[in-house]
Design brief:
With 387 residues, this protein is mostly beta strands. 14% of the residues lie in helices and 43% in strands.
């Protein structure tokens, strides 16, 4: 693959792109698509989630299977825990917080080690209506836990996920977007890490007509460690967008970002934005981000934008890489020369492309499901996903 093929630059420093935050819709004009934050998003396909005119309210089903040592309870609007760990960063996030009726609160008490993942299942079954959600995940000091967010159905849906990882705690979070072909999902994940806390956040996006997921990480104390992983596969007409922001504002913290995607079919489109800010006080930072894309057919497009702003010279390491390109012929020829048919050789190469990343995911129970889902994408007819 060719380094930086398809990569473009942002038009403003990272620090300026993320400085506007508010709970008030009035503070966010309706986006037009000319803004840096929205220039890749097909606004006309969001079904009004970004505007003043929303579809009729829809029904949202959220269920939780809490692991031993964890609790999962519903909370009503006005619960003081909700909105305490974040401030919405754009209009759709503010709209979701203003419009949700009930939140799911997952709590792992301090010093607790949950032996299995807590699974939160989100289902919406009518894409003609708009649904809004809010999830709060709190991991107490020195606790260990895993949480899976599993999305499915036919939806027009926007939500916020608030993630609080206490001092010395560790959270593995997997967000699986396995929507029907007509779904629209705009999500914002806001993570706050305490001193010496660790987060592994994984986004797996395979379904949906338009999915826009924006994870962000902020450090509340030194020694924090964040690993952000992502796997996505876009078919004809799908728009899958991942916009990451890692805000290093504490000394001696670490971050690693590794996202991989594959695209096939006419007008399959993926967007990956990786914004990393190292503030002046964040001495001793160690950060690296990487995005790799495989373009499997003509007519597919991958936009990849790594952005790194460094405001101190005292860092351990800071870098990024972006690659987009077609399957390498020599990999296919190597396998075909050993009697493997072309279609099977292609599947093996793509499986290997995703395999290392899938192996990193800290919820082993999900690895086979993710690998099988990608195999299904490869086997499916590449024609005609368009909402």
């Amino acid at each position: 693959m060719t380094a930086l093929q398809g990569a473009v630059e942002a038009t403003a420093p990272v620090s300026r792109l993320h400085e506007h935050q508010s709970f008030s819709l009035d503070d966010f004009p309706v986006p037009t698509g000319r803004e840096e934050e929205w220039r890749f998003t097909p606004l006309r396909r969001l079904r009004g989630l970004h505007t003043d005119t929303l579809p009729a309210p829809g029904k949202l089903s959220v269920d939780a299977d809490a692991a031993p040592g964890a609790s999962a309870v519903r909370a009503q609007r006005g619960d003081t825990r909700l909105g305490a760990a974040f401030v919405p960063a754009n209009r759709v996030s503010a709209q979701a917080f203003a419009s949700f009726e009930e939140a799911m609160v997952v709590t792992i008490a301090a010093e607790t080690e949950a032996a299995k993942p807590t699974v939160v299942s989100v289902r919406v079954e009518d894409a003609s209506c708009a649904a809004f959600g809010d999830t709060l995940i709190e991991v107490g000091a020195n606790a260990r836990a895993a949480v899976v967010l599993d999305h499915g159905g036919s939806a027009t849906y926007a939500d916020n996920v608030e993630i609080v990882v206490g001092d010395g705690a560790s959270l593995t979070l997997v967000s699986f977007q396995d929507w029907d072909d007509d779904a629209v999902h705009v999500a914002h994940h806001y993570a706050s890490l305490g001193r010496d806390a660790r987060l592994q956040h994984t986004a797996v996006t395979l379904g949906g007509g338009v999915v826009r997921l924006a994870p962000s990480v902020r450090y509340g104390g030194p020694g924090g460690d964040a690993e952000l992983l992502g796997a996505y596969f876009a078919d004809s007409g799908q728009h899958l967008e991942h916009r990451l922001f890692v805000d290093h504002a504490q000394p001696h913290c670490r971050s690693r970002v590794d996202y991989k995607g594959a695209l096939q079919g006419e007008k399959a489109h993926t967007v990956w934005i990786g914004d990393v800010l190292i503030r002046a006080e964040a001495t001793g930072t160690d950060t690296y981000e990487r995005n790799r894309n495989l373009l499997l057919t003509e007519g597919a497009r991958a936009d990849s934008v790594p952005n790194l702003e460094i405001l101190t010279g005292e860092v351990i390491g800071a870098g990024h890489a972006s690659t987009s390109g077609k399957l390498e012929d020599h990999h296919l020829f190597y396998l075909m020369a050993r009697g493997i048919p072309m279609a099977e050789a292609r599947r093996l190469v793509i499986r290997g492309f995703f395999g290392e990343l899938i192996g990193k995911i800290g919820v082993p129970e999900l690895r086979d499901r993710i690998a099988d889902s990608i195999e299904s994408e490869l086997a499916a007819d590449a024609g005609g996903r368009q909402s």
